[in-house]
Automatic annotation (TrEMBL):
<keyword id="KW-0408">Iron</keyword>
<keyword id="KW-0479">Metal-binding</keyword>
<dbReference type="Pfam" id="PF03171">
    <property type="entry name" value="2OG-FeII_Oxy"/>
</dbReference>
<dbReference type="InterPro" id="IPR027443">
    <property type="entry name" value="IPNS-like_sf"/>
</dbReference>
<comment type="similarity">
    <text>Belongs to the iron/ascorbate-dependent oxidoreductase family.</text>
</comment>
<dbReference type="Pfam" id="PF14226">
    <property type="entry name" value="DIOX_N"/>
</dbReference>
<dbReference type="GO" id="GO:0046872">
    <property type="term" value="F:metal ion binding"/>
</dbReference>
<keyword id="KW-0560">Oxidoreductase</keyword>
<protein>
    <recommendedName>
        <fullName>Fe2OG dioxygenase domain-containing protein</fullName>
    </recommendedName>
</protein>
<dbReference type="InterPro" id="IPR026992">
    <property type="entry name" value="DIOX_N"/>
</dbReference>
<feature type="domain" description="Fe2OG dioxygenase">
    <location>
        <begin position="191"/>
        <end position="292"/>
    </location>
</feature>
<dbReference type="GO" id="GO:0016705">
    <property type="term" value="F:oxidoreductase activity, acting on paired donors, with incorporation or reduction of molecular oxygen"/>
</dbReference>
<dbReference type="InterPro" id="IPR044861">
    <property type="entry name" value="IPNS-like_FE2OG_OXY"/>
</dbReference>
<dbReference type="InterPro" id="IPR005123">
    <property type="entry name" value="Oxoglu/Fe-dep_dioxygenase_dom"/>
</dbReference>
<dbReference type="InterPro" id="IPR050295">
    <property type="entry name" value="Plant_2OG-oxidoreductases"/>
</dbReference>
Amino acid sequence: MNSVKSLAESPDLKHIPSIYAYSLNSTDPPASDLQDPIPTIDFSLLTSTDPDLRSQMIRELDIACKDWGFFRVINHGVSESLMKMVIEKSSEFFCMREEEKKEYEDKGVLDPIRYGTSFNHNKEAVFCWRDFLKIIVHPDFHSPHKPLGFRDVLLEYSKKVRELVKGLLSGISTSLGLDQSYVEEALKLQSSLQILIVNLYPPCPQPELAIGLPPHSDHGLLTLLINNGVGGLEIKRNGKWISVNNDYPNSFLVNTGDQLEIFSNGEYKSVEHRAIVNDAVTRLSVTVTNGPSLDAVVEPAKLVTEEISRPAYYIPMKYKEYLEMQQSNKLVGKTCLDRVRI
């Protein structure tokens, strides 16, 4: 397939090809503006040595995961210059010649580096207005050799994000009534799967007809997102779509994933979200999905089910099997998670 970027740059493009006409098959209502403030987690307080400050932030993290499945993280220790460099170098990758990018053409779900378009065009009847670069950065680190400096930036960034995720999951472990290291040990986070994904959404001449990414939940535990300042992220809250912009400087947007829903036995629901496009400017986002180890068997934590006297609602499944099941099919809401519900 040709990239959406090359299609969007066609000088005579006035209408999108019918294969991108997503809205013709969609009954999703349009999104409204965000009314309630996004929960904000101050990471410096979550990791504070002051037990009262940490306890307060753990309570707020619990509410964010339970009521939203989505929150913002501030004071996280990742430098603003590094975050900006990740966006800059990611943009440079997509500006390379098509033949250079095709060296990494998508071949399989667990390929270390995958460049492609849409989501899974071999399975889709309607394509997404999106190009992507997916890189496995842990437990083994990979990186394209171009553009210059990309590898060093990704290596530092992925390490910093893992430290941040470890701290967030420690707080989540505590908020679930578990030992603070329980999640890390049970899901083998020392060899966790971490995938950095760059999403490119070029300007679209008919944005009302196209979709960047359809409604879906993420397969991992937590996903962290930054972008180039262009809006387009929408999350589903209380059955309605709401628009979210990361207009808070030097912050991450974080959403909960399917493995956290399974592990918490449904206490923390993975949030459904989608990406929309516009007709004026390119949107670029960099997400990092953070999951268990590929060989970890994920199931509801026993203490969670025992404490509230209810059975497990999800069958145990190896994370690798779940990942391959989701990524090898069409992206449709939370249908993948439905397959492991009891």
